[in-house]
């Protein structure tokens, strides 16, 4: 195309909007019929419509089109169209007769098309208004009289082809957006004397366009004429004239606003055809740079095309004259090239013409009413014609306005009233044509329009707010209660879409947008692990964070994540446990971390540890095993069937260095008096023990893993919702023990032993050491750090002792303990909820079990039977 | 060339200017109720506290402009205070609400004013709204006191009631009149009105395209 260098973007991606627009539009237009339909919800996929802007526009336009009868009045305008090939003559004669020979009504608008107005050589080169002015004067003289005055709206000359529009003075104020255009046809384009000139204007609120053309001459040149027609139809374009008052935001300082254009023209869309949309889309493709928009002749509500179209009659001169003499005009039409070509649908498609009842307007001897008598003896023809356009899919006037009563005869936009020639003018070899029409134009009732527009906007707001995703979360508070180091806690947050559109969300944990926004899985796993990883050195005791659930295009939901970290013995390395003899809560968490990470100890930690002896095995592990040795010998207990309450009680005692009440666990009797227990309760929340107990209960809610195996559902609920106090716990335990004996207590203790062993971050016997030195207990023993060696020794002694009572088989004990004791050490950071035993392969496990069984035999030689 | 009635029609057809508006104020002063009244002309007696930030849009005709308010109704509870900057940061308008029956809520409103003056967009237009004037019998904040404070700080001032609807539309239209549109039109191209989205510096060409269309140049 001509201006390619201006359009370096050959991808035309920006055009996709318009393509989308079109399909959207078509889809919506065909399916949407009521304002109830939400344009933001895609009818097929319930997916939110991707392009809000286009949806809005389509919806508004469609609704306006539907509503237009409510705010549209129709006005009738009488139009006189005259066309005349003047054969280069000056208007020496009066035009009054011609211009006042209207039969129907006094014209509101005169449209005069002249051809061959200027045949001088100069006319091709320089535009000269002399002739135009001359004719203009004559026309004005012809149409003005005492009781009717006309003003010129515009005229446009293209060489000899000139079109004039006059309107009654009173109507001038309803004419706006006037533009003119012309186009030359033939070899040299503008240099030829064939082509067209046109005027486009808005009458009230309808665009009306007049095209005056002179097509190629000569009987044989039908194809040339057809080409000229196509040339003009395609290339005669009218510029967009922006409204004078550039309303703020209307054009936005960036030149023409396409969107505005589309919306503005949407109304017309229904009346003419949708050709304009295609045209404009193609036009935009070329005109990316400055968004210059042109209107084709079809981008109008009303279109007339007239002039010397030059189509002849396919017969010889004598025959034609004979027909004329006999007054058989109708029979002549059979030979009319234009009607023949139109029937083939190759020219003037969808153009209409009144029936010709007059004699051919060409060719006469000048000064006479006789057909050509010269040597050439040109055959008479209906060269001069008036056509109007009617799109096949256009709405009828009655469909566009409610306020007008429109009869059946009146139910067309253009109603022909008269079509004739005027024989009295003899200065040219053509006779002028008279044609009269009534046309309907739309007048938009601004008040009603604004009212309806506002209603639509309201409705649109409603739809838009309706299409905001509705996301419900199961809880806006995610309370992890108390979480303990090395125990991963999981909370499920159910996010449910209750709206009408698909939506996406993200969880944001930081106010700073540049920081990470975290995805959903994070919340279920990461907070507990992140905050507790020793290597990261985090010393948070409390988590209270608000994370934001951001829903795309919708509301933000704040979710409060809460938890309190209560340190527990479980998960703390053996070395550390051997170093601390007081309740865990006595030591700042930082000190625990220092010890566990074998970092350099701070002054504070050193001070705390001063005067404390290092025990050879973790004290609490000793307490547990000791209990099992003393009270478990006569029970066939297992290591995974503890009672949840008893376990809580034991853990509580261990964590706080409180002596376990053996009477309670073994016989269901509390060694403390009831009154003491009562006083304990009265210490309320100030009392750290009590609050610790209650936080234990909270923790229980979270570690589903624990109770699923041991408690029935109903019990579970009781535990979860009961308000715990130490007294209540003890009472509960007493009940259990009285009913079931001490086995539940022993089972609980055994389970806690396993928990202890599994949760040592560094195994009692790290697998690497086992691999190197594990062939014999002795070598292994000396290779291990002392507290590990002692612990191992002590456990094996305990196992040997248990075996000797023959209630629990050796193989079961080996299976239970081997992989809890001999396993890969886990780094503190990796230690999370992974099932530790699963990290060993079956074969490794077997190897470990065989070795472990040997150690037992080594340490405690089996009794000979 | 003169213009017929068509032109007015075209004027109301033009694209609206988007204005991000944020509501701030102590919990239970009636922020959500004010929005509900403004957007849906409805009122609920026992509205639950907002947990999060509710997003709603509303178009408004003002002379020859259409204003599209993008309203962020924030949670008033103190514990969410730290999240508020996300919502007022790019706002062009703020409605700070207090309850005329609760003097403490005016004090809270004042701290919001200070915070906005310090941290929000310097051109932000602020309206101070004393809500619940239907409870005038229990009035604990004199009109004059709040008005004087508002004048001093160059805030728009209204007493209103979400319950009866008194003065609600006025709050928004008066705000709309005060907004420096030229600036917004200039800025809209670069700003995204939703907090936290696409402000993370990531370059996403496709999104940016859409954003532009969604913001500065939306059409109805
Ligand atoms: N009498 C009266 N009550 C009102 C009025 N506006 C709101 N309320 C009531 O005040 C309570 C709180 O209103 P909300 O709109 O939820 O308050 P809020 O400011 O959004 O509160 P948060 O979302 O917690 O920040 C509700 O019970 C409302 O019904 C009013 O104008 N008059
Ligand atoms: Mg609220």
SSE layout:
The complex is a heterodimer of chains A (865) and B (220).
Chain A: H1 16-31, H2 52-71, E1 72-85, H3 96-99, E2 109-115, H4 122-125, H5 129-143, E3 150-158, E4 161-168, E5 175-184, E6 195-203, E7 206-214, H6 222-235, E8 237-239, H7 258-271, H8 275-286, E9 294-296, E10 302-308, H9 317-325, H10 329-332, H11 337-343, E11 351-352, E12 384-389, H12 397-400, E13 414-421, E14 433-444, H13 446-466, E15 471-473, E16 477-483, E17 495-497, E18 505-508, H14 520-532, E19 542-551, E20 556-565, H15 574-579, H16 589-596, H17 603-609, H18 619-631, H19 644-655, H20 662-667, H21 674-682, H22 688-702, H23 704-708, H24 713-721, H25 726-740, H26 743-759, E21 765-766, H27 767-773, H28 777-783, H29 786-804, H30 810-821, E22 822-823, H31 842-859
Parallel strand pairs in A: 1-2, 7-10, 16-20, 21-22
Antiparallel strand pairs in A: 1-14, 2-4, 3-4, 5-6, 6-7, 8-9, 10-12, 11-12, 13-14, 15-17, 18-19, 19-20
Chain B: H1 6-12, E1 17-25, H2 31-40, E2 52-62, E3 65-74, H3 84-88, E4 93-99, H4 103-119, E5 125-131, H5 143-152, E6 156-159, H6 168-178, H7 181-188, H8 205-214
Parallel strand pairs in B: 1-3, 1-4, 4-5, 5-6
Antiparallel strand pairs in B: 2-3
- Please tell me how large the radius of gyration of chain A is: 50 Å
Q: What percentage of residues of chain A falls in helices of 4 or more residues?
A: 25-40%
In terms of structural class, how would the helical and strand content of chain B be classed?
A: alpha/beta
* N to C succession of SSEs of chain B: HEHEEHEHEHEHHH
Report the top-level CATH class of the largest domain in chain A: Alpha Beta
Please give the CATH architecture of the largest domain in chain A. Answer: 4-Layer Sandwich
Give the number of DSSP strands of chain A.
Answer: 22
Average pLDDT reading of chain B = 79
Global shape of chain A: rod-shaped
Instruction: For the record, give the distance between the C-alpha atoms at the N and C termini of chain A, rounded to a whole number.
Output: 108 Å
Please, what is the CATH homologous superfamily of the largest domain in chain A? Endonuclease/exonuclease/phosphatase
Oligomer: heterodimer
Low-confidence stretches of chain B: 1-13, 190-220
The largest sheet of chain B, given as strand count, sense and whether it forms a barrel, is: 6 strands, mixed
How many domains comprise the coordinates of chain B?
Answer: 1
Q: Cα distance, first to last residue of chain B? A: 27 Å
Kindly estimate the percentage of residues of chain B that lie in beta strands according to DSSP.
15-25%
**Sheet bearing the most strands of chain A, described?**
6 strands, mixed
